[in-house]
Design goal:
Largest sheet: 6 strands, mixed
Radius of gyration: 16 Å
Order of helices and strands: EEEHEHHEEEEEEEEHEEH
Distance between the termini: 42 Å
Shape: globular
Low-confidence stretches: none
Strand content: 25-35%
Number of helices: 5
Helix content: 10-25%
Number of strands: 14
Strand order of the largest sheet: 1-2-3-4-5-6
Mean pLDDT: 97
Length: 202
């Protein structure tokens, strides 16, 4: 399957939104960049589904525009006025050419899920490869109202329990995608999160 970051050219703060082409063409998150519809259309004329990792504004600000342009069913963990399918822990969904397990991963957001296949992880914001805090193995911030470092730690542990040893592709909500030993990246993120130190010291 082919994966494209359709917010790569964004000039505003947005998440990474990923177009996954294959047997089932899926957009993972919509982002906050007004050019996302045109970016998707540069690859495909139709979407089979849109799946959300969570509903923070940087992941869904352009969701209505995408839904209007492609008339695709929306899948999400939490309620949304246009949701057609509910994602829940232990569900399995087809993204591209592979079945993915849905893993409920709260802490950064109460409605956060990640998608895990035998080869690939779409981690949203629960863990990322790199960001402004760490260059290899970072985790979603937990210092805002409604967030919890303890829940995030348990979520990363749950993610590792589902992940196999052969996962080599990691597509994250922020920062760069990663290809290699994904388990090591996630384990590094867990170790840092467990220190319970502020991610962004004042």
């Amino acid at each position: 399957m082919d994966v494209y970051s359709v917010t790569a050219d964004a000039d505003v703060f947005t998440c990474n939104a990923y177009l996954v082409e294959g047997e089932r063409t899926v957009l993972v998150d919509a982002g906050a960049w007004s050019g996302v519809v045109d970016a998707v259309k540069s690859h495909t004329d139709a979407l089979d589904a849109i799946m959300l990792t969570h509903q923070h504004s940087d992941h869904i600000a352009e969701l209505d525009a995408v839904l209007d342009a492609f008339d695709a069913p929306l899948y999400a963990y939490a309620d949304h006025p246009r949701r057609e399918g509910e994602l829940d822990d232990d569900d399995q969904v087809l993204i591209g050419d592979e079945p993915f397990d849905v893993v409920y991963t709260p802490g950064h957001a109460d409605d956060h899920v990640a998608f895990v296949s035998e080869t690939t992880l779409f981690s949203g914001d629960v863990v990322v490869h790199d960001d402004g805090a760490f260059d290899y193995g970072s985790f979603g911030r937990t210092d805002m109202p409604g967030q919890s470092r303890e829940r995030l730690i348990e979520s990363i542990k749950a993610l590792l329990e589902v992940m196999g040893d052969d996962i080599e592709h990691m597509y994250t909500g922020h920062g760069d995608e990663f290809h290699g030993d994904v388990r090591d990246v996630v384990e590094t993120a867990l170790g840092r999160a467990k220190k319970r130190q502020p991610k962004y010291p004042e």
